[in-house]
Amino acid sequence: MKRGALLLTLFIAAFGAAACSGGGSTTLPPPPPNGFSKASLNGQYAFIMTGQAADGFGLMRIGTFVADGNGTIQGGTELVNTASNGFEQLNFSPGTTYGVSSDGRGAINLLNASGPSAYSITFTSPTQGYICETDGNNGASGTFELQDSSALSFNAVTGPFVFDVTGAVSDTNNNLFADSIVGQIILSAGVVQGGVFDENTNAFVSNPVTITNGSGSFTVTDTANGLGTLTFNNNFQYAFVIVNSKKFHMIEIPPTGASFPMTSGTANAQTAPPASNSAFASSYAFLTSGSGTTPADFKAGRFTADGTGKLGSIVMDDKLLAASVTQIPKGTLSAMTYAVDASFPGSGRVTVSFLDSSNSNPYQFIAYMSSATQGVIQDNSPGITGDGTILAQTGTPFTSGSLAGDYAFNWTGTSQNNTTGVIAEEDFVGHVTVTSAASNNVTGAMDLSELNLVDPLKVGIHDSVVTGTATISGDGTTSSGNRSTFQVNATNPNGGPSSTLTFTLYPVNAQTMFVVMQNDDNSTGGTLTRQVTPP
User: Fold this and answer.
1) pTM, two decimal places
2) Which end of the chain has the lower number of beta carbons within 10 A, N or C?
3) How does pLDDT run across 205-237, given as a tens digit for each residue?
4) For residues 253 and 235, is the Cβ–Cβ distance under 8 A?
């Protein structure tokens, strides 16, 4: 979902410079007894991470690692693309270490031909979680998930899939442009049997493109790791790693000797997507990130689809880098429509559009639903190339009581130093406990990475203590217009000042909350996922 780091040679902004509140380090509280341990990380895991490499350009990686359940990494492999080294496969050496604390936070050390690397993780459940590189060598984050060993073959991955790949492409003069593709692809016995996709390159949106039956293949070349290649329409070529029969991660393979196109993403199995406007009738929340007239743009919002093509109860926060958050509605809303595309039956393609009178151009989105309740969404608003996630909003009315619990989180984006103007990739991963109290109801800890490309002392902060308040104001459509908020103070154990991070919060359901940071010098957002603890 991140694009700013792909388009600019970025420089460092020290942690806390964007939002300093003063203060110093606080002793890390003992983690809650949630039941995680080294034994929780046991087996072969597929992962995907995106972000910024030390050269200031993009970083894409997918792959596997193997953990023995007792603190030792036993191997694995990754496919990685950077501007400096191009596209390459690197194997992980056995014998490095990892650890997991009882709250599901942990650390993984990996070693391959490029050298050692260190990662922070937080489990969202006993089989999956968030991962973030925190050694200062690169700035990247993503997810890891236990692989299904029975699904690591071409004939186990079949049927329609919704996919979302994003990153950067180049022209013949080596100019870089943001790129996003969302769509549907149909696989059967290793053959591509059709589909459709939409591509947004540098805010230029093409008409939907049909994926031709028989135009490509899904071929597994490494059954031990679930790696292979996917091709379609004769000019798209991706490597993939299979997670299970319903999911695989993708990374685009550039021409030999080149680094671009540099895109990656995930495909999820599609089951009973909406086939008509009447089947797309619910409240939906969405989260997108992208780039445009500034290096970074984050949006979070929600709307209600009435089943006849009309939208209502639209609320959205739009956060550009180095700007105050724009809250929609800002003026008067009109032209609030959606349409399930009958031109591509079974594709789950949905167009969404609305106009705020404060702007002369409408906000425009294209979603591909993997089911009636979830999908991917592309932001095609004027001047923007963006993408993200759309989910049905259920469980209202939300209250501090209904949302109390333990959460793992991953926030990612871009910060700009308010003194030097330097821009940097930032990634956060951690755990918080949210109680039903009206205030001071958030406690936890996190690790974070903010690249330092000016000074060789790159920034990686571990065990930052997090305290604050989550204020829940329904589903975001209260008559007063008040948003739910999530504000935390994060200490700097390295001795620097603490930081106050303020987010607009969009509750999605009992398991998920979207957030967008309000701090002026950040364009950052992400997801809090209710943590499922081991039995």
Assistant:
1) 0.94
2) C
3) 989 999 999 999 999 999 999 999 999 999 999
4) no
Q: DSSP letters along 91-123, please?
A: EPPTT-BEEE-TTSEEEEEEEETTEEEEEEEEE
Q: Confidence band (pLDDT; 50, 70, 90) for 422?
A: confident
Kindly compute the dihedral angle of the four CA atoms of residues 131, 325, 504, 377, in this order, to the nearest 10 degrees. -60
SS (H, E, C) 482-523: CCEEEEEEECCCCCCCCEEEEEEEEECCCCEEEEEECCCCEE
Closest CA to 289 of 506, 61, 514: 514
Q: Which of 25-29, 46-50, 253-257 has the highest mean pLDDT?
A: 46-50
Output the DSSP codes for 310-375.
BEEEEEEEEEETTSPPEEEPSS-EEEEEEEE-TTSTTS-EEEEEEEETTSSS-EEEEEEESSSSEE
Q: Are residues 48 and 143 in contact, defined by beta-carbon separation less than 8 angstroms?
A: yes
Q: What is the mean pLDDT of residues 351-361?
A: 96
In this structure, the number of other CB atoms found within 10 A of the CB of residue 107 comes to 16
Confidence band of 17 (pLDDT split at 50, 70, 90)? very low
| Cβ pair 446, 464 in contact under 8 A | yes
Q: If DSSP codes are grouped into helix, strand and coil, which group holds residue 216?
A: coil
Q: Is the bond into 329 cis (omega within 30 degrees of 0)? A: yes
Report the C-alpha gap between 253 and 126 in whole angstroms.
Answer: 32
Tokens 């200062």 belong to residue:
136
Q: What is the torsional sign of CA 307, 311, 317, 323? A: positive
Q: Do residues 491 and 498 make contact, with C-beta atoms less than 8 angstroms apart?
A: yes
Q: What is the CA radius of gyration of the chain?
A: 22
Residue 247 in 3-state DSSP? strand
Which residue shows structure tokens 């724009």?
A: 326
Q: How many CA atoms lie within 13 A of 365 on its CB side?
A: 35
The answer to whether the beta carbons of residues 320 and 523 sit under 8 Å apart is yes
Q: Considering the chain, what percentage of its residues have pLDDT values greater than 70?
A: 91
Token couple for 481? 């217009």
3-state secondary structure of 6: helix
Tokens, residue 94:
């056995």
Q: DSSP secondary structure string, 29-97?
A: PPPP-----GGGSEEEEEEEEEEE-TTSSEEEEEEEEEEESSSBEEEEEEEEEETTTEEEEEEPPTT-B
pLDDT greater than 60 at residue 475: yes
| Sign of the CA dihedral running 263, 265, 269, 270 | negative
